[in-house]
Amino acid sequence: MKKLVITCIAIALISPAHAEPDLTVNSLLIKAIEIFNLRPLPTKRFEETAKYNLGRALFFDPILSGNRDISCATCHLLSRGSSDHLSASIGTGGVGLAEMRVLPSDRPHQPRNALDLWNRDNNTVRTMLWDGRVEAIDPILRTFRSPLGDLLPTGLENTMAVQVLFPMAQDDEMLGLADDRSPIDLPQPHANRLNEFATNTKDLLGPMRIKAILRLIMDRLIGTDDAPQKPWHAQYRALLRSAYPTVQDNAFTIVHVANSIAHYIEMTFATRQTPWDRFLAGDPTAIGLQAQKGAFLFYGRARCVACHSGPLLSDFEFYSIGVPDHGTGIGKTEEDLGRYLVTGNESDRYKFRTPPLRNVTLTSPYFHNGSAETLEDVVKQHIDPLFYADKYDETGGLILNPAQIDAISPILLPKIRLTHADIQSLISFLTTLEDPGYAHVDKLVPASVPSGLPISALNPN
Amino acid sequence: MKTQTISCAALWTIAFFLSADFSLTYVRPLITLLRDQSRYAELARTCYEAMGNLNDVESISTTLRPAQFRLLRQAAVVSTMQCYAQEELRRSMLSAGVSEHQLIRIDLQAQLQSNFPIPNPTMYSRDQ
């Protein structure tokens, strides 16, 4: 009798009627895709050009940093989804990589979370960094707004190339402090050298200082007529000549350096063939039922698409979602005023740029201060932006001040009602935006760099 | 011994076909009905919330940039597509013999369980 019952249940369970709800979710999602006119992201072809090789050497070479101890690759690790898995990045003076990186107590800590670098060459990327202090005014005419103001050199090819300039001139990122010396354990002739970038420019301010630092970087990289030649000068000149064959030898500037680093980033950090892109291209099996439910929520009831729109799932605008302050904030103040520090507009207080979401699963922790450890925490903050409005910190004060509460985006104020299952479906959808497979992994990390300095890199796999 | 084995196999074959017939006649329709009812209740709840969502979006229209409001409204309209699925299922259940009275009862229950317009404490809370 027992076997009979089991057989009955088995037959009932394998009956084809069970496929019905799956098809319904699929058809609803396809209608949503039509409404939002969603298209797969074009696949970028990998090309190992002379410009790429120059960009790769520069991306990994600590020679660009004041103290010769940090490169772009230190905080934008291939093995950590182009970020570093730290809440707030650790710049020059830090020891180790990724989660193991530590900062000596006398060094300034960076105030914000390192952003990922995925798909930054896409035309929709109008603003860079959490506060958008680098932005494209007209990407076609290549006019940009940046901390260099009118001193921004011409010839920078895109927003990424403009952004590349600024970590090199930031004291808590790659620049370091005046009178700093490089670590004594570096190979010669790099050990215990004065940080000339920070020291020689210490009396300058703002854009004038940044411009002077960038000129000194070029002097160190390719040498000057009146200073002794170093072994790497000739190598970098040769790389520059290969990458820019029409440029005169004495005409290489920081613009060529920035353009080639941006080119390396574009080639290396391009998502190719995520499951979601394959689904959009017409492969119904590319994502599962739960992810389809999540996508339907994302483009529907959860309202995510209001800001996370476009091919990179960001509108590159600025909003506050009630994330409490955590750490020192930029300018080493108690609170991080975000976009306000760039525009000076009262209405921009506490606002930060909408982050793009491709490969978001690889780049925890999240938010401008890295205060959310998981994507579940991130979704919960969005659906309940006033959560901290009535909570107290350890000093007895309210965690969010009235101005922070007022700044919260009106999009989030009408309650978004999601169940636990809904949240899991959304996360399942975000997982389909993942493309961890770097193209041509063996060509991404150089064996060595012209300066002979050690490379900061962890294997992408 | 051989005869015994043959009759045992024959008995099992008869039992299998009987069970399949029993399953197709009684168990499967019952499971389908229960599953449809549960799905109908879920669709009713999400449809009701989607309608509330549409109201919410309209209520903040003046605070948003036009392009953003357009996106948000599109999202609200997408969420109401569940209402068409609910309507489709309603018709299919009515044709399968489910009474309209029963569907109205499920509808009302779903509205009571919904988070709209009164927040429901059984839904997600970070205080938990």
Can you describe what's shown?
The complex is a heterodimer of chains A (461) and B (128). Chain A is mostly helical and 461 residues long. Chain A has 16 helices and 5 strands. In chain A, helix 3 (50-60) packs antiparallel against helix 9, helix 3 packs across helix 10 (254-268) and helix 12 (289-298) crosses helix 16. The model of chain A is unreliable at 11-23 (pLDDT under 50). With 128 residues, chain B is mainly alpha-helical. Chain B starts with a helix and ends in a 15-residue tail after the last helix. The model of chain B is unreliable at 118-123 (pLDDT under 50). Chain B has 4 helices and no strands. Classes of the chains: A mainly alpha (461), B mainly alpha (128). The A-B interface holds A 3-4, 7-9, 11-13, 15, 17-18, 21, 24, 28, 31-32, 35-36, 296, 299-301, 303-307, 309, 315, 380, 383-384, 387, 410-411, 413-415, 417-420, 423 and B 15-16, 18-20, 22-24, 27-28, 31-32, 35, 39, 46, 49-50, 53, 56-57, 59-60, 63-64, 68, 71-72, 74-79, 81-82, 85, 114-116, 119, 123-124, 126.
One letter per element, helices H and strands E, the order of chain B comes to HHHH
* Beta content of chain B: under 5%
* Strand arrangement in the largest pleated sheet of chain A: 1-2-3
N-to-C CA distance of chain A: 54 Å
The main pleated sheet of chain B reads as: none
Helix content of chain A: 25-40%
Shape of chain A: globular
How does the overall form of chain B come out from the CA principal axes? Answer: elongated
Number of beta-strand segments of chain A: 5
Low-confidence stretches of chain B: 118-123
Question: On the 0-100 scale, what is the average pLDDT of chain B?
Answer: 78
Q: How many whole angstroms does the radius of gyration of chain A measure?
A: 24 Å
